[in-house]
Each structure stands twice: as structure tokens, then as C-alpha cells.
């Protein structure tokens, strides 16, 4: 497997424990994708009773499509880290801030 070294913002905390990538309120996907043009949802969310075994990985933000957020530049997240949680039954980036 090829190795890619890249700087990315991190998911510092995720309270969505029913997601397959969540262990102890941390996200262990390699990278998540956030949002559409309006809503900053976590596109990588996958409800599943089994959970990932590789818990050394700290998830980065691979891409964010929510251009209404002030931290979004050129369809990428430019802040240091984000938190993810539930807002009105949707999995959302809690760090989202309207421009
Ligand atoms: S950030 Fe998204 S993919 Fe990661 S654990 Fe939370 S809901 Fe799942
Ligand atoms: S903070 Fe803003 S730009 Fe970063 S992932 Fe969340 S919604 Fe996207």
C-alpha cells in the first residue's frame, strides 16, 4: 500500500457512538468527508454494531463540501480540529460556523 503524508485537520471528538468508526467517542476512520453545500453532516457515518479494531488511527477531514462555513476554503476544512455530534437527529460537524 502507498503511503501519503498530508496535513489535515483532525476529528478531536465524536459523540456518535453507534457509528462503526467510533470507539470511546473518538473517530478512527482514516479521513472523513463532511457535508453538502448547506448542511455540515458527516458523510462517513455508518451505523453498525461492529466497530473498527484499528484504534491507533485519528481521523482527519479529507474534504468538506460545506462552503457556507467560515472555516471552509476551496472545499477543504482549514481549522485545526473539529468535533462531531448529533443535531436534531443528524450527525453534524459541531465546529461549523456560518460565514
Ligand atoms: S466523525 Fe463521522 S465517521 Fe467518525 S465516528 Fe463520528 S460519525 Fe462516524
Ligand atoms: S468546521 Fe466547517 S469547514 Fe471544517 S469540517 Fe466543519 S463545516 Fe466543514
Summed up, the helix count is 0
Q: Which structural class should the secondary elements be placed in?
A: mainly beta
By DSSP, the count of extended strands is 9
Please compute the radius of gyration using only Cα atoms. Answer: 13 Å
> What would the average pLDDT be, to the nearest integer?
96
Shape category = globular
Are any ligands bound, and if so which? iron/sulfur cluster
Q: Flag low-confidence runs.
A: none
Could you give the order of strands across the largest sheet? 1-8-9
The biggest beta sheet is recorded as: 3 strands, mixed
Strand content: 25-35%
Series of H and E elements: EEEEEEEEE
Count of domain modules: 1
Model description:
The protein has 99 residues and is mostly beta strands. It has one domain. It is built from no helices and nine strands. It has strands spanning 10-14, 22-23, 26-27, 31-34, 60-64, 72-73, 76-77, 81-87, 90-93. The protein has a three-stranded mixed beta sheet with strand order 1-8-9, with no helix packed on it. A two-stranded antiparallel sheet has the order 2-3. Strands 4-5 form a two-stranded parallel ribbon. It is globular. One iron/sulfur cluster (SF4) binds next to β1. One iron/sulfur cluster binds at residues 11, 14, 16, 19, 21-22, 27, 29, 32, 42, 44-45, 59, 84, 91.
Amino acid at each position: 500500500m502507498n503511503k501519503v503524508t498530508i496535513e489535515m485537520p483532525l476529528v478531536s471528538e465524536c459523540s456518535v457512538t453507534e457509528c462503526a468508526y467510533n470507539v470511546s467517542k473518538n473517530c478512527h476512520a482514516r479521513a472523513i468527508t463532511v457535508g453538502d453545500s448547506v448542511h455540515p453532516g458527516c458523510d462517513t457515518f455508518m451505523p453498525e454494531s461492529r466497530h473498527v479494531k484499528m484504534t491507533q488511527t485519528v481521523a482527519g477531514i479529507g474534504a468538506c463540501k460545506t462552503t457556507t462555513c467560515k472555516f471552509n476554503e476551496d472545499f477543504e476544512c482549514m481549522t485545526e480540529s473539529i468535533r462531531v455530534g448529533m443535531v436534531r437527529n443528524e450527525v453534524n460537524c459541531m465546529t461549523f460556523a456560518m460565514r
